[in-house]
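ok so i was messing around last nite and threw this chain in just to see what happens. nothing serious, just curious
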Amino acid sequence: MRLHVGCAMWAHKAWQGRLLAHPLPTQERLRHYAGWCDAVEGNTTFYATPTRDTVATWVQQTGTDFRFVAKLPKVVTHERRLSEVTEPMRVFLDAIAPLGPRAHALWVQLPGSFGPDDVPTLARFLRRLPATYRAAVEVRHPAFFTETRATRLLETVLGEADAEWVSFDTTAFFAAPPTSDAERDAWTKKPRMPLRTHALTDRPIVRYLGRDDADRTVEGWQHWVDITVDWLREGRSPTMFVHTPDNVDAPVLARRFHDEVRARVPDLAPLPEPIPLEPTTLF
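result:
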């Protein structure tokens, strides 16, 4: 039983000198982020597959309990839509191999046009994944949320592959009009996803988008605190990624979510202590 929490990235200009030491060399940024959170969304791998040596530095900067949810490359999910992807998947899997057990899941984020008629393609793709990896699939076609037949079809395919359905909760964000530049920008880019709270596996993954106002973000995640507590008591080990439009306080909020859950599940392991912004001195 474990709750992992994290953010959409491990480096952010707004964190420099406030949450993370500054300046930091590139090869130290993840190490300092890992003092705040014990998981991260691997969004960068969507745009470019890193070298194996680069991934090895990620391992060097994190402890054995740290987890990456590695996003499959855009060419695999959006350009080729999971078909004829043997070579890009070979390159990607070879690159992330150093992660070993730190690779919590392969994140298969599918475009909104990938609908129920495409599920057989997804099924074939999942069957070909190496057994050493677990998949977490994020869909955005509305039929999967509104049509019972489509929901059951997807759940069946995911269940057969022991793959999770990633919940992307944007309901709190879209509950009221935007009030900041970052919120106005996100308003035009983020999908209005129906709320889904059902876990298929013992390792559910939630992506939660709050507001730039911390109080509204916390208010909007209270149902997830209840659900996460229930999951933990059922023996599941969930992962919660906290987003806000500006992400200025995302690591702080992720830790706060963990604290709220741990207050109700005292046996939950604590998060690591953040690395001090400045070296401690004796005098």
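not much to say yet. The domain at 38-154 is CATH 3.20.20.410 (TIM Barrel).
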